[in-house]
């Protein structure tokens, strides 16, 4: 599930963007606390060793320790007002063990002594032993070599926490001002910034110190037509990125021009909001779509969400096996389909890859949360299903000898489990621009930006909206449409993919809050693609009167 | 599992700490929020327990205000030096914060309804109790070659708030939520049941699981019928969900006055103003809140259950009985204190629960009186399509059946719907007896012309 935030779930998303999801046990701190150096790495190692020794002495056969410091900053505004500035820190330790063939986990807030860690380890062992009675078979953990003392740092250029709050407020105020000047009645804007300082240690002999950064600038613009009483909105075309504040400095090469400007590794918030205000106003006079079959040309700012829901989730092995049956659901992509080696997930043009190493992506790390060095692997090659996303206690089921490295916990207090890697559509190998793609479309719709999204619990039937819809008639853009949503079935949809633009058009989109698990954990994940064309997709008209 | 600081403080203990914190305060206004408690859970899938855990926390947040600038600092250590340091830190943050032009001065003392939504039975839950609850659900499934996946989460906690204008409020609260999905071994049938209670002695996981088992077995061999407009019987779990968006929560979550008056809500009126006082749905629709209802007691102030509707007012506004929709007419909207002040009206906070009046019929009675229709156990992945009309989309899941001549005839494949709760509540045919769901009381509803737009192969 792409769970943006709780308010959106209950329908309060109307007025834009409200409360962020905060990590567990977050406490409010002063902004300068976000720049304080975390615990020394030598001390972290000592604490981790204390936990591992304590667990071993109680009978654990495997232990991993995560010492985590999670920092968040949110600057939240509307029109000419700063609504809130939130700076939070969450620090603690999670210890996971295998004892009597069963997992056990315990976490402790503010743990700073070897005694704290030892106690957590002992509790984790006790839980494992208690739950072992309810197990059907022991955990089979894929072997993993130790990497010794290593570190990984996201290749950012500017730590966003070093940028003064005033500069961020000034940016959002100028963004809001531009929206109001260009036809918006209301505008909400937010800067979300995250830094995860994670230390992982395991009895396999890895001690990995990692520093991960994420940023997401967003806005929502509303334009009201008092004559009709209708309102229209347009959200930002930004993407959440695994980058620092440099994402907000767009170079000309980061901009993709066309019916509207879209962005790659740099985002011009001011330019986008100016366009958004005008487009929200223009939507009032857009033509209401006629329901029927259309060829869809989908921009990466839109397609990422379709990839996320219809490829990323169904190819998570824990869903396939039934571990998420009571919440997120299971999957249509069952093991027999994979075993057949001829399940046509999509057309020959469709190559979908999982990647935990992609620079600038939300999922990029050096090592996952169970000490596996990250990598890139195929999920769908030339249209055929070839693999899943799996972690150490699952890979034996799909005959792999080592984990694919996509284990993640959203906090030190949460137990790590299989999460989605960055899952992306490979760019087409034949040179093809968006203009050339549109030129061949007789009756189509060009969709930019993500909107409404919904998919069933086995990932067959889905419906997606968008931010901007343009009618394509005989190879030409013929004006703006509204009330558009498309419905399809995963296999049918990916088999209707006839063209993918080349790598010059490749861009990332993503989700800051992908929800899974009970209790629910959120994960940030990117999805890349170039613009792609899908033929004969069912489009419905969503206008209603109440 | 969290090892430190297990704490359900009493009212007196909480007040003592808050008073101490306030004694250090030097800002124009200072407020303190103290929360603590324990959360425990057990999760199972593929007929075995997958994870279980417990965490406890006790934390104190201080908000200091100078003029219209506010700052908050949080701590979970409680010695005098730490408390004073936290007050100073909040004051430093406030001094450097930008001004909030919508800041409202803190409230003085308030009168709260006497409610105690707390159960000793729930407080006394142990890991063994959770394991037994999971076993009671797993055991009947294992015996009938069915596969269970379920989750139970219990929480026991308290919230106390106080401020330098002598407001003080305290609430302790317990809750247990349980849900189970049962699937047939071949994956062709799936059933679901969910329960939520304040007092865990009222929860029977075996009873709920048996309903999910029956639905799983009865849903095997689902037939495809054409999408279109159908009469539906929506069970309460199809109207309100604990873990996802839902049609009635979407509507109740959209009754904010400011959005309506700004022109961006289903309650906005053409040419300006709102639809307050207008009849927007069937005259049998009456929805009100009552924090004292013994079946769904909530916090007497916003801090507790009020979070469900986006934070009902950690500012200390009292929750009270209030009617939102009466005989199909919009009677009230909720306000932030700023917007209420600007409009010169009472600052009604968002509710912490709601009760939809229903009838006396059981679900079986409603099926019996249906000539042709579809019974829906629950909906899934419900998301807004058009905020103006509250058009939502989503799918049926875990038990969808065709009814003919008062009887369930056969299971049907799942549908995608595109529907607005406002249109749905205009097409009301019948209402059953309300039951507790997600902390609210909601009846099963029979609706005509419910719009299904496509079929899904998902089981």
TrEMBL record, chain A:
Family to which this protein belongs: Belongs to the peptidase U62 family.
Pfam families with a match to the protein in the record: PmbA_TldD_1st (PF01523), PmbA_TldD_2nd (PF19290), PmbA_TldD_3rd (PF19289)
Organism ancestry: Bacteria, Pseudomonadati, Bacteroidota, Cytophagia, Cytophagales
A cellular component term, taken from the record's GO annotations: cytosol
Metalloprotease TldD/E C-terminal domain location: 292-539
InterPro entries: Metalloprtase-TldD/E_C (IPR045569), Metalloprtase-TldD/E_cen_dom (IPR045570), Metalloprtase-TldD/E_N (IPR002510), Peptidase_U62_metallo (IPR051463), TldD/PmbA_N (IPR035068), TldD/PmbA_sf (IPR036059)
SUPFAM superfamilies the record matches: Putative modulator of DNA gyrase, PmbA/TldD
UniProt KW Repressor keyword: no
Organism name: Spirosoma endophyticum
Name by which UniProt lists this protein: TldD protein
Metalloprotease TldD/E central domain sequence ranges: 161-247
The entry's keywords: Hydrolase, Metalloprotease, Protease
GO biological process: proteolysis
Annotated GO MF terms: metallopeptidase activity
The keyword Aminoacyl-tRNA synthetase is assigned to this record: no
Domain Metalloprotease TldD/E N-terminal: 64-128
UniProtKB/TrEMBL annotation, chain B:
Gene Ontology biological-process annotations: proteolysis
A GO MF term: metallopeptidase activity
Residue ranges of every copy of the Metalloprotease TldD/E central domain listed in the record: 145-214
Gene3D superfamilies in the record: PmbA/TldD superfamily (3.30.2290.10)
Domain Metalloprotease TldD/E N-terminal: 32-94
Metalloprotease TldD/E C-terminal domain span: 227-453
Top-level taxon: Bacteria
Keyword annotations from UniProtKB, A to Z: Hydrolase, Protease
Family: Belongs to the peptidase U62 family.
The protein's name: Predicted Zn-dependent protease or its inactivated homolog
